[in-house]
Amino acid sequence: MGRIYHKDIYDFDNPVKSYWEETSHPNQDNYPKLNGDQKCDVVVIGGGFTGISTAYHLAKKYGSDVHLLEAGHVGWASSGRNAGFVCLPSTKLSNKQLFKKYGIEETKKFFQAQVEGIHLLESIMQENNIDCEKAGRGNYDVAHHPDSADGLKVWGEELQKYFNIKTSWFPKEEFDQIGHKSTEQFGAIHMDEGFAMNPLKFLMGFANAAHLAGAKLHGHSNVIKWEKNDGRHKLITKDGSITANKVVVATNGYTDESLHKSFSGRMMPVLSNIIVTREMTEDEFELQNFKTLTPICNSRELLFYYRRMPNNRMLFGARGDTYGDNESAAKMRSWMTKRFGQVFPEWNSVDISHYWRGTVVMTRDFTPSVGNLEKDPSVYFSFGYHANGNNSTVYCGKKLAELICESNSGNVNIPAVMSGLAPKIPFPFLRLWYLRFMLWYYNLSEIRREL
Ligand SMILES: Cc1cc2nc3c(=O)[nH]c(=O)nc-3n(C[C@H](O)[C@H](O)[C@H](O)COP(=O)(O)OP(=O)(O)OC[C@H]3O[C@@H](n4cnc5c(N)ncnc54)[C@H](O)[C@@H]3O)c2cc1C
Question: Nearest 5°: CA angle at 65, between 61 and 261?
């Protein structure tokens, strides 16, 4: 087994107990298992947004003969269970670091691609009549401490100056009125791009659009072995196999690193957790003056992300836990419930109806990794969206389809910031320890700031 967390995280046979699964997923097994020995041109491994976008664009734009294999039900993992923020950017590097490493022009191309991803997602939604509870306008970043306000203001000014993304700054008192009150609200940046959605509803609509375009989707088809003979790839599942000329690896935080050695040790999967409250009344929302449906992240290094959902529940998310077993999940749930009540004291006794989690992926470069292998150009990949994947997955899937079908035309143009295979993380078997150290360091920095 080539995955780093406890096996409870990889229970492909059962849907996660998310609010989305409970309310938006009446028929989760609507794509047949792979059976028998089959052949095609392209196989995509992974039925999240990256895989579906690749299959959709391959089938729709190029009429490709493409099959998609998903270990759980299609949409089982992060794409179908995330917070539904459509936002940017998919990197942990600051603008200064990006400029230094890639130059201003390539950084601009990267941000252009990030915005393009948001618009692409929205256009797919519209073209295919996908009703996925689109809500809010843009995104907010809230200063969680008075010291963080200046940094956020500068970030907003840079987004506007360099990347033409419209932003506005709201001092605490103003945001108290238009956004919300909180013990961790000291002003907010609004950026015009993005919105919120129900990710599982979008995913099911997107998968259906890929299916209608001619892609063949298979649920419950975990690839357990990958062989290469006479230049062709053979992917084997419990119930069948498929031979293909090209393979796309779209497995992000659930990648089995024992399947293909090129992907081993290059991803740092991090657990992200979500709680959702029971439905609240308007009077209860008034208590925190919570007005907006626009998604919000705060400025903590280990950030809290939250939003008021259109059906009047609160969704609240946080990163943490480096074990992954069910016992640690229960601890995480109660820690988050406590922190939610501290950030929004008027809601400290509101019942939490749902808790779930999944993985996001960081890379050693702190940027996404998209392309095909130098050693075997018939293997394509895209991963490492640093927790902001909803826009990038859809964009990168499209780029992979172009790379597969138009690599000779020179038109593919993947921005340098995300092009190529991410370097290996040194001593990858220590990854969970690096993460533990990072969590400890960030927590300590926050404690020192409070003193
Ligand atoms: C709790 C949480 C909240 C998040 N919130 C947001 C947010 O609000 N906004 C945002 O932009 N991003 C968010 N993210 C990140 C975002 O969900 C991911 O970046 C994105 O979904 C990645 O999509 P993907 O298709 O690459 O991977 P996934 O959606 O994880 O799909 C990969 C698929 O590969 C399958 N797979 C793995 N191995 C095999 C195999 N051997 N055979 C067959 N199938 C296999 C898995 O079952 C899985 O379904 C969040 C993530 C989490 C976990």
Answer: 105
